[in-house]
Amino acid sequence: MSTFSPFKNGLPITVTEAMIEKILRMKSYGQDIKVEITPKHIVLSGTTEVKKMMLKKNVAFRITLKPVHVEKRTISFELVEMEPIDRNFINRRIFNKPPFFEFENRKIKMNVNAWNIVRKIPVGTIKSYELVEGALKMKLSI
To answer: Is the pLDDT of residue 106 over 50?
Structure first.
């Protein structure tokens, strides 16, 4: 029996709603974000401060993301819906959180290697992932 036999299907890693909220709030002045993970989507809602011509205004938003692609240790999400208005500058303000998140062309890339829980495992790529109620569950190949 191999030492790694319990992990032959991959090493399980769980990223919770609270973990994603914490990262999105980092360096986010004037942002209040709530993350909800369902079996089909990740939904972010809250407010963000927008400055326009020396005026500050809190804008409410609701963003729906759908996972679409995995490459190595990165999961790409498609921006399915943005309410009440779909503006790239709001999306960039929320999602440009290197090294965790990157926003470009209506795609959000989540680098799971930036999470401490994953960084401790120096080898392997994302073998599978699934959204479940309240969490993103992944398996890393080793």
So the answer is: yes
